[in-house]
Structures are given as C-alpha cells and as structure tokens.
C-alpha cells in the first residue's frame, strides 16, 4: 500500500466524521419548526386562516350597536322658482346647519333591525314673494324604528354561520398543510439519517477491509501467504473505498435537498440524529379506525360541504319566494324660533307599513334551481360517506404495514447479530490463515449489508408509524390526539 493511498484513506475516514466538531445537531423537531416558519404553503394557509378569522370577527362586530354621526356645518342655496299659484317667479334663499345621530342595532335571532335617530337643524330662509323677510327656525326629530322581514329565512344568522364554516374550513386546511409539511420533513429527515448511517457503515467496512489488508500484508512479507491473497485483499479494500465515496455522494445530494426543503444555506453544517427506537408501539386497530373516521380533516371538510350545500338550498328557495316585511316607527318632531322651545308643542310622527311580495309565475325557474341544490346536498352526503369508507380502508392498510414492519425489524436484528458473529469467527480464521481474502471480504460485505438493512427496517417502521399518525390524527407513540390547533388562535 503506497503512502499516497494511505493519505487518501485517512482523508476518507476523516470525512466520515462529517464535521461533527463544528456541526450543529439538528433534531427532527427543530427541522419541523424551521420548515413551518419558511414553507410558502404554510404561509399561504396561514394567510387564508387570518382572512377568515378577521371576516368572522368583523361580522360579529357588525351585530353590535352601530353609531353614526352626520354633521352639516353649513349649507347655502339660492334659487329662482316659478310659483304656479300666482304665476310668477320667486327668489328663495336658505342657510342651514345641523346634525344627525343614528344608532342601529341588528337583531340576530329575528333578522330585524332596531334604529334610533335624533336630528337637530337650524334654518334661516327668505323669499321675495309678497315681501317676506328672513325667518329663523330650529327643528328637532327623534324617531324609533323597527323593521322585521316576514316569511323568509334569517339572513343575518345564515351569513354568520357561513363565516363560521369558512373559518373552520380554513383551520382544517391549515392543519392539513401542517401535517403534510411534517410528513415531508420527517421522510426526508429519516432518509438523510439513513444515508448518514450508510456512510458510517461503509466507513466501518472500509476499516475492516484495511485491517484485513494489513493482516495479509504482514503474512505476505513473512512468506506465509502467496502474493495473490494480497492482491485480492487490496481489490476488496478498493471496492470498499469506492462504495464509501458513492454513499458519501448520495448523502451530500440528500443533504442539499433537505436544505432546499428547510430553506437552509448549502454551507450550513449540521448533523441529524433520528430516534429510531428499538421498541415498537402497540396499536389497537378498532381504536385507530374510530379516531380517524371521527377526526380526519377530510371527513370534517366533507361534513362542512354538506352543511354548505344545505345552506345553498335555503338561499335558492328564497330566489322567488313569498315574503314580506313590517316597519313600525314612532317619533316626535318639534319646531320653534328658539332652540329651548323646540319640543314645547311637538308633533307625533308614527307609522306602520306591511309589504308583501307575492311571486306569480316564474316558468319553473325556482323549482329547477331548488332541485339542483338538493341534488348537490345528496352528492355531498354521498361523498362524505365514501370518504369515511376510504379512510377506514387507509387506516386498516396502514396498520397492516406497521405490523409487517415489526416483523421485518425482528428479522433484521437477528440477521445483524448472526452476521456479526459470523464475521468475528471468520476474521479469527483469517488471522490464522485458514480463510482466503475473498471469503473474508464476503463476510465483511454481508455484515455491512445486514447493518444497513436493520437501519432501513427501523426507518420504515418509523415511516409506517408516521403514516398511521397522519391517517388517524393520533400520536400512538405519545398516546395523545392531534388537535388541529393554530398558533395564536
């Protein structure tokens, strides 16, 4: 083995450390938080959620008492008007000032509106007719009014319910995006961990091959073994070195993809350390199916679609409906030349009005539109039922995959133990000269392959557990449900 080859080998083995001295330990939770802070899809879903939340808050605020103040500091007018009674033109001049205070209160339970209006005005007027001079008057009007729709649906309450449904749907969409990000980050994180472990296992295989090469070197130098054995051992070491370089390249590519997902700079030094636990989690299938069917966001979104369709039926029925309204008002109006005596002899202002809208013939338009809206309800209900069946099948399949991975872990663990014992036994035989280099290389490769298979099996188990978590909205490893909570909500 030349000096240059030794230096190259030393550099390769040093690279296996992957900068652990200065690298940051990036946990899965830390990676998830970085992704949630930077993901464009999450930011878009968060914006939609905030829009729905603000719209609902605005609608609720609109149901409270509304105060309006209108001021007219000055209004001047001068006009030439023809008077039919005396068949002559008359010049009129007016100067006005006043204000109007209005209080409006929507009634949610009845869809009515109660309002109170108070106006105060000052007027100075003059006319050229019959030599009339200027007259100054003050007037005030106080009126209480109630307006109530009849024979129709409660639009105020339905609009509020629609905004509440929109907010819940936005929350569900945000939670779905969160779970999707968690799934993507976890999968890439575990893939990166797998490739990082692959580098470590390949480095161990290279160290074993280098050790074997050193053993055969000493035997060849002592004349105990033929030179062909050295050539075979050197070829084995070269193959191990090439394998290490290849898995290092794969790790570097996976690392770049992970940096893209998290928005990290490519020169950011970090390590991943996944908790591929040796223990497995017990999952009750009936409990998993029940929780998934009742809490999966797709089911809740389907239920929201049904409720939206029902609301659309109500709106459609009101297109050409028989409806009415009643308006009741009571007030006082006072006028006087002095502001203090405005209400000295007030005039009552009261009234009631009933209006009915009776559709006569619409050529069947309303009937067809209502029928179409009801068909939409039926379609939404059928879609919701099929969604529950599909989710049940998904959970059952995910549970079977989890059970299968438990079996694969048991097999992989036993295979590693057997391969390690076999390698140690044959390594001793190799040291004693009872085993050729080609055979010890086989056992080295077998040990590396079984170690990698065990890591792969444990990662697949974690992915199967993650898949079941996403499909049931329940974290079985922690024993807690996943509520679609939103930060700051």
How would you characterize the overall build of this protein?
By secondary structure, this protein is an alpha+beta fold. The chain has two domains: 3-55 and 159-310 and 372-481, Outer membrane efflux proteins (OEP); 66-107 and 112-153 and 322-358, no CATH class. It is 58% helix and 21% strand. The chain is elongated, with a radius of gyration of 41 Å. The two termini are 66 Å apart. Mean pLDDT is 82; it is low at 1-21 and 485-489.
The domain count comes to 2
Compressed to H and E, one letter per element, the order equals: HEHHEEEEHHEHHEEHHEE
pLDDT < 50 stretches:
1-21, 485-489
Mass-distribution shape: elongated
Q: What is the average per-residue confidence, as pLDDT, rounded to a whole number? A: 82
DSSP, total strands: 10
| CATH topology group of the largest domain | Outer membrane efflux proteins (OEP)
Helical run tally? 9
What can be said about the biggest beta sheet?
6 strands, antiparallel
**What share of the residues lie within helices?**
55-70%
CATH superfamily of the largest domain: Outer membrane efflux proteins (OEP)
Topology overview:
Elements: H1 3-15, E1 24-26, H2 28-38, H3 40-62, E2 66-83, E3 88-107, E4 112-127, E5 135-150, H4 155-221, H5 227-262, E6 270-272, H6 285-295, H7 297-317, E7 323-336, E8 347-357, H8 365-431, H9 437-472, E9 474-475, E10 480-481
Parallel strand pairs: 1-6
Antiparallel strand pairs: 2-3, 3-4, 4-5, 5-7, 7-8, 9-10
Helix pairs in contact: 2-4, 3-4, 4-5, 4-7, 4-9, 6-8, 7-8, 8-9
